[in-house]
Specification:
single chain; 8 strands
Amino acid sequence: MIPLHGDRFLRKITEADLPDVLRLDRETFPDDPYPYFALRQFHDALGDHLLVVDDGTALHGYILATPPLHASSWILSLVVSPALRGNGLGRELMTAMLGRLREEGAGEVLLTVDPANDSAVALYRHLGFTPSGEPHPEYFGPGEPRQRMRLAF
């Protein structure tokens, strides 16, 4: 467990956390949350890289990354409870995961972000990520633009 600001800590997901992670995803992405089966498979396949924010009573966020493969890793999802946004929790999650990925041998970390999500883009830029090319207007399908970003260690 990694202590975070306040009474919160970061820890590896457990199977019992899956309903709360689904809840967080639905709160954050109401139009397109991960389905339960995908979260279940992420738990099984990437559980060491699926970390949750816990305060002892509830989960308040999570981060999902891939382990480094050929020195590259991906941040697949960063979720912070809407009630706690703007308090630095996203930065704490990213900083913890980036440190872990660096220790595991990642030479670069990649992610995609909705280019209209100004706060997320600002967070990633603050952490050293830079855009990789122009935003792709249909990265996840029609009406789903994403900007690829990259951080080199």
